[in-house]
Specification:
globular, two-stranded antiparallel sheet, homodimer
Chain lengths: 193, 193
């Protein structure tokens, strides 16, 4: 057990680096940009708080586990802001290599289990993954609304980009959250674009 | 459902402030002090990763939920560094008022459920709470070891203070984690005190 714990602690110390990965989203008060560690906490709290809005059959425990793990690959691959320009294929390759290295710090059985959860999140096909992915897309617009525009201002985002890159994914996994957000986001774009 | 969601989003936007509460612990690389939002993510990841070291009967799902919520009161009460000087009774009073205000943003049934989880964590009597509290005490020494001393240097901590304020709580809820940490922490204190 002691060898397993030593490997697990190497993984957890490596994970600490996620607190130094900066995202494109600002805190609600606009005081600075968010990091991926605190973002991961916040959306796990979203999952816990908003579980009643998940489609039937979703396991909120598995959703929370996915969200705790979902951004670890950014330690190597960095965060790709949703309205930024990046090559999705290149990003996916970087993230695959990162997953192999970072989950590979764990004992093999646990590495495989965590990797399977991350793969499931990325594939966005199961209801659990779709709800988790919806929350990952639902949080930034709410912080943008709170901070006065945030990444929408930084990237000069237009409504059609928002609909394509964000709204579709929220609506896919959590339709009721999109119904709530839509008029609020639309009002911001109407006033500012 | 829309009114409930509006209340839940007010809670989640308020929770964002936890990312601006600074703790006494430094990141593993010593580059800056940690905030309570990213700390909450990290120890929820500790719980997920170290679940096999929990005493029998512990529900890791409930432990993770407690850890996601455990520091929210610091939005009003601030973080009391473990080796710092503060009046525990005054701190407890501040935290009780904070819990009432912050969980009170939620719909009443959910406010009561979250408050019950937080009360259970604070009381440190159930096996779930004891394991959660152990993880909350287990992470900072590991970050101190990684960063070359961290809060032990800042507060000129002595071994007996560490044993009383930290080790006892880790050993209480997660004896195998304390067995692993003890020789590593002892080596640091022997070399530096």
């Amino acid at each position: 057990m002691s060898d397993r714990l030593t490997a697990q602690m190497a993984f957890l110390n490596e994970a600490c680096k996620l607190k130094s990965v900066t995202r494109g989203t600002q805190l609600c008060d606009g005081s600075r940009y968010e990091n991926s560690g605190e973002h991961s906490w916040h959306i796990a709290l979203y999952a816990l708080t908003l579980s009643e809005h998940a489609p039937e059959g979703v396991s909120i425990h598995r959703v929370i586990q996915m969200l705790l793990l979902h951004d670890l690959v950014e330690i190597d691959a960095g965060d790709a802001p949703i309205f930024g320009d990046h090559d999705p294929a290149e990003m996916a390759e970087l993230e695959q290599a990162a997953a192999t290295r970072i989950f590979g710090l764990l004992p093999p059985d646990q590495a495989a289990a965590f990797r399977a959860l991350w793969d499931e999140f990325e594939a966005n096909e199961t209801p659990d993954a779709q709800f988790a992915k919806s929350l990952d897309r639902f949080q930034p617009p709410n912080q943008n609304l709170a901070s006065g525009g945030g990444s929408w201002v930084d990237y000069d985002t237009q409504w059609d980009q928002f609909e394509t890159r964000v709204a579709a994914k929220i609506a896919n996994g959590a339709p009721s959250l999109w119904d709530w957000l839509r008029p609020r986001a639309a009002a911001w774009f109407k006033a500012n674009r």
